[in-house]
Design brief:
By secondary structure, the chain is of the alpha+beta class. About 50% of the residues lie in helices and about 20% in strands. α1 packs antiparallel against α4.
């Protein structure tokens, strides 16, 4: 593939894979990389209902709760459920069906890594496969981003019913997923354009001269 397209394509794929990898580590291993977070001064969670939390951060593999006395992270695995409560006994539950889909992000990171390896090849067919795999990773990332949006909207709607003066916002993992989606689309297009340019260059440099002088029929029988 042409160096003009090879270097940007590899850069876009590496950046997208690296961001998806960071997001995939997520909570509780990387406490700053949450998808959705809830701020409140009067909310409680069933994991420790005796304390009022100031912030809840939801990740892929668990969640973290910040209290006035400190912070606690819960390694629940993907597909966990979480119940919010208020001081009057009201409660809402974020079911596992809303968090289970977050596991698509590590899958997208794996596909992006495969596309990155393929994009380093100079073979035209391999670069075509790299472009297709890049678009596949972009599709998976788009699905993951849609799941992130759904989780954020559902948490905001449900927790808002408790009247605990909450503020629900998107976390860093939410936006890094969106950036990764854009980078994967750019990478797929860049690698695809590079392959097309190589094909056109190959056709231009074809040794067969179509416009060369044509010999007559009798010239075949002449001696050199």
């Amino acid at each position: 593939m042409s160096r003009t397209y090879c270097i940007p394509g590899v850069f876009f794929l590496f950046s997208a894979w690296f961001l998806l990898l960071i997001v995939s580590i997520s909570l509780p291993y990387f406490t700053a990389m949450d998808i959705t977070r809830v701020h409140s001064a009067a909310g409680q969670v069933t994991s420790d209902s005796s304390d009022v939390f100031t912030e809840i951060r939801l990740g892929i593999w668990g969640y973290c709760a910040d209290y006035s006395s400190g912070s606690t992270c819960f390694h629940t695995g993907h597909g966990y459920s979480l119940t919010f409560m208020n001081t009057h006994g009201g409660q809402v539950t974020i079911g596992s069906s809303w968090t289970r889909g977050l596991a698509v992000l590590p899958v997208a990171a794996g596909v992006a890594f495969i596309a990155l390896l393929l994009s380093m090849s100079q073979h035209i067919t391999v670069t075509l496969v790299a472009s297709l795999v890049s678009f596949l990773a972009a599709l998976l990332t788009l699905i993951a981003f849609a799941i992130n949006i759904a989780l954020y909207a559902y948490v905001k709607h449900e927790v808002g019913k408790l009247d605990i003066s909450e503020t629900t916002i998107t976390g860093p993992g939410f936006w890094l997923t969106f950036v990764s989606l854009l980078l994967l689309i750019l990478a797929g297009c860049t690698v695809c354009f590079g392959r097309r340019r190589d094909r056109m260059a190959g056709a231009t440099n074809n040794p067969i001269q179509l416009n060369g002088p044509k010999a007559g029929f009798l010239s075949r029988f002449r001696r050199n």
